Structures are given as C-alpha cells and as structure tokens.
C-alpha cells in the first residue's frame, strides 16, 4: 500500500499557543509539521522567522520520542541566507521557489550541505522545466494548488494536471536512480479533494484550515486518511 503523509500547516494554528498546537496535531496523527515563511516581498504577507522554528522544534516529537520532520516552505526572496538560518534552527526539509533564487542549483546544494532535505516549489502558473536539470539534488517537489501568500484559499483544480506531470518525471527518475523524491501538494486540501490529489500522484499533503479550523484534529486527520485509503 502506498505511503502517504499528512503535513498540517501551522499558518492556520493558534499562534498564542503554538507549542501546544504542534504537540496536539502530532498526537492526532500528523506526519510532518509544515512551516510557511512569508516575507512581504516575494508574497504579500509576513509570517514567522527562524527563531519561531527553533522554539517549536522541541515539540516536533511523537509521544514515543520519535522525531516529526519540520517542513519549512520559504516564500522569500532572496533565499540563501534565510535557508541557512532555518537549517541552523532545526529545519529538516527546506523548500523554495526557483524564481526566487538566482542560482537554483547552488541554493539546493547549500540546503543539503546544511544537513537538510531540499525542495522546489512550483506556483500555479510556473513551468516545470528547471526540475529536469536538478532532480539529483531535490528531495521533495511541492506543487502549490493556491497562489502563495495566504491561508484559507480554494483549491485550483488545474494543479491536478501539474501533479500528474511531476509524478511522471519522478517515476522515471526513480527507475534509473533508485531514489525516491516526495511529491507534496499545498493549498485548499480538504476531505473532499485529497483523494483526487493522491490519484494524480501526490504522496504528501499540506492542510491548514481544514485541520486547525476544526475542534477535533484527530477526527479530521482520520477522515483525510480514510479518503487516501480509497485511492488505488
């Protein structure tokens, strides 16, 4: 059976109780903690920085002590200095938008040299061409199913076609390299569309308001997994 990961986005959490929110959502079955970084420059919003990542890192553990990856999505420009700061503050995965870096290959190398997995993020209207030249340095591809900048937006259905195109690339790459690259989708993911995203080829799902906007996190995550279980 295919392995799927649920990555709640703390952008929709209660920031006054952030540590408790992280612990609660992990206890409810989260696989990753997704951490959205916006700079009011690359995107029209301002969120949180490396010190917040450092503060919540100790909470990114299951009850048995096993770690839960801190999945940092940089919506910033330029990228390199902040990527290094987040690596130093405990990020496990750092993803960025290729158009925000002058030298995508160099930025990917920097992230991996800092001990993190590296990801590339593609906006709804962004082409995928850069991916063909750097797959050997990519550990995760993130497809945005909303325009980046704000939580709570509706899912853009055309993202399903882009997910399918990336899945073809990743499957072909795995066949000759033996290396698995995660395919994540972020934006408007809910119980009623997660199965479609999985059927298109995604294996990791960012959900913000769909989880944190509900009183019972465990029930929502269980419902998301039930939908994923229906995907062949």
Question: How many β strands by DSSP?
Answer: 8
| Count of discrete domains | 1
User: Please, what is the CATH homologous superfamily?
Assistant: Aldolase class I
As laid out across the biggest beta sheet, the strand order is: 1-8-7-6-5-4-3-2
Name the helix and strand elements from N-terminus to C-terminus, one letter apiece.
EHEHEHEHEEHEHEHH
Q: Which ranges are low-confidence, i.e. pLDDT below 50, for 5 or more consecutive residues?
A: none
> What share of residues is helical?
25-40%
Looking at the structure, what is the overall shape? globular
What's the tally of helices?
8
Strand content: 15-25%
CATH architecture classification: Alpha-Beta Barrel
| Secondary-structure-derived class | alpha/beta
What's the end-to-end separation, in Å?
9 Å
Structural notes for this entry:
β6, α5 and β7 form a beta-alpha-beta unit. The model has no long low-confidence stretch (mean pLDDT 96). With 232 residues, this protein is of the alpha/beta class. Helices cover 34% and strands 17% of the residues.
Quick take:
This protein is of the alpha/beta class and about 230 residues long. About 35% of the residues lie in helices and about 15% in strands. It has helices spanning about 20-25, 50-55, 80-90, 105-115, 160-175, 195-200, 210, 215-230, and strands at about 5-10, 35-40, 70-75, 95, 115-120, 140-145, 180-185, 205.
List the helices and strands and how they pair.
Blueprint lengths: L4 E4 L9 H10 L5 E6 L11 H7 L13 E6 L4 H9 L4 E4 L7 H10 L3 E6 L17 E5 L14 H19 L4 E5 L7 H7 L3 E4 L1 H4 L4 H13 L3
Helix pairs in contact: 2-3
């Amino acid at each position: 059976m295919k392995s799927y990961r649920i990555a709640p986005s703390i952008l929709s959490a209660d920031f006054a109780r952030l540590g408790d929110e992280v612990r609660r959502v992990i206890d409810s079955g989260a696989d990753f903690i997704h951490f959205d970084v916006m700079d009011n420059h690359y995107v029209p919003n301002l969120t949180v920085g490396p010190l917040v990542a450092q503060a919540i890192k100790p909470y990114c553990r299951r009850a048995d002590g096993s770690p839960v990856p801190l999945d940092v999505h940089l919506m910033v420009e330029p990228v390199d200095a902040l990527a290094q700061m987040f690596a130093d503050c405990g990020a496990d995965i750092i993803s960025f938008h290729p158009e925000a870096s002058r030298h995508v290959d160099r930025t990917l190398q920097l992230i991996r040299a800092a001990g993190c997995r590296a990801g590339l993020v593609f906006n709804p209207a962004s082409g995928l061409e850069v991916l063909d030249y750097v797959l050997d340095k990519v550990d995760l591809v993130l497809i945005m199913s909303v325009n980046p900048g704000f939580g709570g937006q509706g899912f853009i259905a055309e993202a399903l076609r882009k997910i399918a195109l990336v899945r073809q690339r990743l499957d072909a790459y795995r066949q000759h390299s033996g290396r698995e690259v995660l395919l994540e989708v972020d934006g408007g993911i809910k119980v009623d569309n997660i199965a479609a995203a999985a059927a298109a080829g995604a294996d990791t799902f960012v959900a913000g308001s769909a989880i944190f906007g509900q009183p019972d996190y465990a029930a929502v995550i269980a419902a998301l997994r039930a939908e994923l279980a229906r995907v062949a």
